Amino acid sequence: MKTVTLYSTDWCPFCVRAEQLLARKGVMPERINVGTAIHLREEMVRKSGGRRSVPQIFIGETHVGGFDDLAELDRQGRLDALLSTP
């Protein structure tokens, strides 16, 4: 299974929902808190192509987007394949 990285903050309800969806898939993401670390927020913005909102989710090197994007992949039946592709 690929590494999942979740850029988040402590007060973000969509971050919690993303973690819950991933947990249902048996995935524990690497959580990077950008709430107080400016350099990590800058890293997130750079890696996500300018997105400033949280969560920003990466599966391996693939930028998924935010929670709505992750949930849409799941609804389409594409999330499991993305998680399991080597």
Automatic annotation (TrEMBL):
Keyword Disulfide bond (UniProt): yes
SUPFAM superfamilies hit by this protein: Thioredoxin-like (SSF52833)
Domain Glutaredoxin: start-end pairs: 4-64
InterPro entries referenced in this protein's UniProt entry, alphabetically: GLR_AS, Glutaredoxin, Glutaredoxin_subgr, GRX_bact, Thioredoxin-like_sf
Keywords of the record: Cytoplasm, Disulfide bond, Electron transport, Redox-active center, Transport
Domain of life: Bacteria
Gene3D superfamilies hit by this protein: Glutaredoxin
Annotated family: Belongs to the glutaredoxin family.
Function: Has a glutathione-disulfide oxidoreductase activity in the presence of NADPH and glutathione reductase. Reduces low molecular weight disulfides and proteins.
Name under which the protein is recorded: Glutaredoxin
Organism: Ralstonia pickettii (Burkholderia pickettii)
GN (gene name): grxC_1
